[in-house]
Write a structure and sequence with these properties.
Blueprint (H helix, E strand, L loop, with lengths): L1 E6 L4 E7 L4 E8 L4 H15 L7 E7 L5 H18 L3 E4 L12 E8 L2 E8 L2 E10 H9 L5 E4 L13 H8 L19
Parallel strand pairs: 1-4, 4-5, 6-9
Antiparallel strand pairs: 1-2, 2-3, 6-7, 7-8
């Protein structure tokens, strides 16, 4: 079975295709505020490169936020439409959880603007801190109190550096730990008021 992997919740656009064992094709790059123009052409290219059609897809995994309001909606809308139209399962995953690094405790961060951050803390399959919004000052204090934790995400806005990972690989690695949901009931995670 082929699984389509999608995430456009932050500055990047990530599109991938996996069989039952591994990711067989993927593309990812920074596309800030261009995901809506680039997602469908990248899907078309992915299908053409692998000589498949949408009918060959057996499941879809998608990052559901938090993150950019529009970015989250782009990948999620495409995933929902395909899941509903093709009657295939859809798996929604926290976009912060996709930033975790292996089995190590990882503070996963994204810029929430207005001097705030989206934060979630994960270790392996465990959630140590549910996704939420902190002020940037709270984030920096939280990090300082946990020097043994890894940092991951887009950290430039905080003047920090951290680990990089492949969000699609992280997504695929979670598949056996998730339950598919109905395409009509899956919702984005925005966290902002």
């Amino acid at each position: 079975m082929l699984t389509l992997l999608l995430d456009s919740s932050n500055k990047r656009l990530d599109v991938g295709l996996a069989n039952d064992q591994k990711i067989i094709d993927q593309i990812g790059y920074e596309a800030w505020q261009q995901q809506s123009e680039k997602m469908i052409p990248e899907l078309d290219n992915l299908f053409a490169r692998n000589h498949i059609t949408r009918h060959d897809i057996g499941a879809i995994m998608v990052g559901i936020g938090p993150g950019s309001y529009t970015g989250v909606r782009i990948a999620l809308t495409i995933a929902k439409v395909m899941s509903f139209a093709l009657n295939i399962p859809i798996y929604g995953i926290s976009s912060l959880r996709l930033l975790k690094i292996g089995e190590q405790p990882t503070i996963c961060l994204m810029n929430a603007r207005s001097n705030r951050s989206y934060i979630g803390v994960y270790q392996g399959q465990k959630t140590l801190l549910n996704d939420r919004i902190f002020t940037n000052a709270e984030v920096l204090s939280f990090i300082k109190e946990r020097p043994e934790y890894l940092l991951s995400g887009d950290l430039d806005y905080l003047g920090l550096s951290g680990e990089k990972n492949n969000v699609l690989q992280a997504m695929f690695d979670l598949k056996n730990h998730l339950t598919p949901v109905d395409a009509l009931s899956i919702n984005p995670i925005y966290l902002k008021d």
